[in-house]
Amino acid sequence: MSEHGGAQSDDEATFDASKYKSRKEKNEALKKWKAKQAKKQQQEEVIPRSVRITRIQIEQDSGKSNHDLEEDSTVVDLNRAGTALLEIVMEPDLRSPLEAGQVMRQLQHLLRHLDVCDGNMEEGSMRCDLNVSVRPTDLGEKADAETLHQALTSSTAAPFGERVEVKNMNSIRNMMRAAEYEARRQIALIEGEGGEVHRETRSFDASTGETKRMRSKEGAKDYRFFPEPDLPPLVFSEKLIEEISETMPELPDALKKRLCDQYGLTSYESSVLVNESGAAHYFESIAKENSRPSKVVVNWVLNELFGHLKTVNGDIVSSPVAASELGALIDLIQDGTISGKIAKDVLEVMFFENDAKKTPLQFVKEKGWKQIQDPEEIRTLCRVVLEDPKAKKNLEAYWKGKTQLFGFFIGQVMKRCGGRVHPELANSIMQEILDEHKQ
């Protein structure tokens, strides 16, 4: 895996320059989780896993050969030559395409959270090379993931098979597709054709979902490491490491836990906020003011605001609705000035039509959206609905026990006033009138 940085050389580089022996980290555990499908409660079950990091090394990218652009020649692309890279090398601790996808997402979120890079694989700012090998087990394909993981990591597991490297994957989804295909290809080669897997490098074709052979894989002795005179040894002092540690922002896992503990969010809600750049700060900026209910705030951020952002393919950092403005809108709901239904209309106008930067209250006043809270006015609306000849059959059915029609009556009240009536008052007053008629 590698990440683009700024160009470090004025001349083309015809080899990879790597700080191979200057290991920033070694054998550190990178946590990841297995997220099961969020059901009605939108909850996520967390199953801890870890993957060992062999090393993190600085590299300098070289030119790229392309053998497909011209039929009789190879084209060399030097656009990336001299570009600084950060390569993270991991131990073979992953046992399925799903696990590989999850650890890549976790790493992607971490790099974005720390502002190391944008992590956009489709743009090449984060790349992934995949190594796949297979080994036999006594379990069939129907074995659940946990049982399979335990079998493959036990001390009695068969040794690793020959590994194959796969390149050219521009998304996590394609990386998972490549892992799935390559594992099945190797199994078919061993079991079906009686062949053996050779160490090689293959390319993934996203259009067919298949891997294709590129070249035989070099052994470690063939990499030809030698000192780079333009790159002196990089030494990290303990003092520098301590200073960096003290200035590090709150890491994703710690932030998720704090959001759950402090605001009562579900693991699903906290994960979405943390994984979307700037969303956790946006949420907290609203929730910590005016004692706003955190569950109300997170609902408006994740469902309503994110819904509008999705329609314009935007992110929360570039949202036209500032945290203070959404907070002010939530305050209008909480103090009864407007209903939740009207608030959605206000948010839509603020998101798409607020060039003048008006406040939520200004929109409410201009459009006459203020909630009706006068009991007598609400009582009049309720009587008009019940006395309407069209409501006669429904009213009779209600008296005979079809009490679910109460919601229909309230809906008619809302319809007559454009949804501006205070729902709790409308419910209580409608019930009073129905009880009076019953007597």
Kindly describe this structure.
- With 439 residues, this protein is an alpha+beta fold.
- Among the domains are: 1-116, no CATH class; 251-367, no CATH class; 375-438, Arc Repressor Mutant, subunit A (Orthogonal Bundle), CATH 1.10.10.
- Helix content is 43%, strand content 14%.
- The chain has helices spanning 97-113, 145-153, 172-192, 238-247, 252-263, 267-275, 279-287, 294-311, 323-334, 340-353, 360-367, 375-387, 392-399, 405-416, 423-438; strands spanning 2-7, 17-18, 28-33, 48-60, 64-66, 75-77, 83-90, 126-127, 130-132, 164-167, 200-205, 210-216.
- The strands form three sheets. Strands 1, 2, 3, 4, 7 and 8 form a six-stranded antiparallel beta sheet that branches. A four-stranded mixed beta sheet has the order 9-10-11-12.
- Strand 5 (64-66) and strand 6 (75-77) form a beta hairpin.
- Mean pLDDT is 83; it is low at 1-15 and 21-46.
- Pfam families: GatB_N, GatB_Yqey.
- Residues 281-434 form the Asn/Gln amidotransferase domain.
- This is Asn/Gln amidotransferase domain-containing protein.
- One of its GO terms (biological process) is translation.
- Heterotrimer of A, B and C subunits.
Short descriptors:
439 residues, alpha+beta, six-stranded antiparallel beta sheet, 15 helices, Arc Repressor Mutant, subunit A, four-stranded mixed beta sheet
Mean pLDDT: 83
Strand count: 12
How many DSSP H or I helices? Answer: 15
Instruction: Give a short account of the largest sheet.
Output: 6 strands, antiparallel
Cα-atom radius of gyration: 30 Å
SSE class:
alpha+beta
Proportion of helical residues:
40-55%
N/C terminus separation = 76 Å
Tell me the series of helices and strands, N- to C-terminal.
EEEEEEEHEEHEHEEHHHHHHHHHHHH
Cα shape: elongated
Strand content: 5-15%
Ranges where pLDDT stays below 50 over 5 or more residues in a row are: 1-15, 21-46
Domain Asn/Gln amidotransferase: 281-434
GO molecular function: ATP binding; ligase activity
Organism: Phytophthora oleae
Family: Belongs to the GatB/GatE family. GatB subfamily.
